[in-house]
């Protein structure tokens, strides 16, 4: 990370975290319902039989109802497991996940570890994000796990970030290693970014 962008990214992440903490219980519940509806529709649109998704933390948009639906629908769900080398292992969703706090400070299920290449078998990737701009550039939380994962994939399926509506912005700070995504799912809509989608179709 360059010296110029590091403070800018830290300040933006701090602001976004504070906004999320200030949401009311009713606002969170309404957001979760909308996000679940749009993630289900996206999964059906893609025809995904296997997806990767993360377990949301308390302040994040709630992905857990979607995970429960996918599992009940017979869709294979892979969860990311953080590693000390900056890569991600994966584990498969079960009926009763035991959770621990991962290296990034977020919830992770306990299960049989699959290596980093397991992500190559999914049809849809759902990623966390602090903010995403209208070109599809994603601002993560500073650990770089997803940038490394997405940047290493030869054939990447559709990648969608999950956000609150106000976190889709005109521009986010970007560096050379930052990875664009195909779209975002918010409580009110699903937005696809044509630039990365066109590039992915050419791979």
UniProtKB/TrEMBL annotation:
Q: Which UniProt keywords apply?
A: ATP-binding, Ligase, Magnesium, Metal-binding, Nucleotide-binding
Q: What class of enzyme is it?
A: ligase
SUPFAM superfamilies attached here?
NagB/RpiA/CoA transferase-like (SSF100950)
Give the matching Gene3D superfamilies: NagB/RpiA/CoA transferase-like
The cross-references to Pfam families, in alphabetical order and at most eight, read: 5-FTHF_cyc-lig (PF01812)
Q: Which cofactor does it need?
A: Mg(2+)
Asked if the keyword ATP-binding belongs to this entry, the reply reads: yes
Q: Which reaction does it catalyse?
A: (6S)-5-formyl-5,6,7,8-tetrahydrofolate + ATP = (6R)-5,10-methenyltetrahydrofolate + ADP + phosphate
Entry's Gene Ontology molecular function annotations: 5-formyltetrahydrofolate cyclo-ligase activity; ATP binding; metal ion binding
Residues bound to ATP:
9-13, 138-146
Give binding positions for substrate.
Answer: 55, 60
* Keyword check for Transmembrane helix: no
Q: What is its EC number?
A: 6.3.3.2
What is one process in the GO biological process aspect for this record?
tetrahydrofolate interconversion
Q: This protein is called what?
A: 5-formyltetrahydrofolate cyclo-ligase
Organism (species)? Amnibacterium kyonggiense
Taxonomic lineage is: Bacteria, Bacillati, Actinomycetota, Actinomycetes, Micrococcales
């Amino acid at each position: 990370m360059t010296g110029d962008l590091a403070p800018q990214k830290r300040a933006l992440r701090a602001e976004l975290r504070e906004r999320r903490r200030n949401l009311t219980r009713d606002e969170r519940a309404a957001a979760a319902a909308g996000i679940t509806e749009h993630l289900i529709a996206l999964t059906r649109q893609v025809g995904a039989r296997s997806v990767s998704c993360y377990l949301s933390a308390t302040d994040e948009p709630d992905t857990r109802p979607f995970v429960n639906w996918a599992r009940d629908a017979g869709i294979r769900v892979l969860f990311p497991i953080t590693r000390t080398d900056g890569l991600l292992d994966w584990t498969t969703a079960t009926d009763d996940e035991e959770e621990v706090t991962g290296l990034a400070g977020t919830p992770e299920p306990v299960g049989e570890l699959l290596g980093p290449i397991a992500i190559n078998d999914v049809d849809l990737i759902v990623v966390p994000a602090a903010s995403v701009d209208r070109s599809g550039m994603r601002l993560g939380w500073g650990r770089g796990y997803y940038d490394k994962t997405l940047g290493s994939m030869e054939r990447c399926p559709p990648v969608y970030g999950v956000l609150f509506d106000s976190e889709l912005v005109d521009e986010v700070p970007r560096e050379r290693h930052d990875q664009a995504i195909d779209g975002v799912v918010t409580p009110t809509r699903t937005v696809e970014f044509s630039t990365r989608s066109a590039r992915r179709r050419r791979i």
